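In this section we walk through a basic example: taking a raw amino acid sequence and producing a predicted 3D structure, encoded as discrete structure tokens. The instruction is simple. Fold the sequence below.
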Amino acid sequence: MNLHEECLLRYLKFPDELSYSTEILKLNNYILEKHFLMKNFVAKSFVISYTDEK
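The resulting token sequence is shown next.
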């Protein structure tokens, strides 16, 4: 069961805690977004070797 399913189940059991479940989902989505950005868009360092050709 993933986090979204767990939060939905928790909401169905305890409707008064909707704001708590919503905050958990927002935090999880934020973490996933940051992980995606770091993995796909952050420039990877590379090595440039200079040679002296004469």
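Looking at the output, two observations stand out. The CA atoms of residues 18 and 37 lie 28 Å apart. Helices lie at 3-13, 18-40. In the next section we compare this with other chains.
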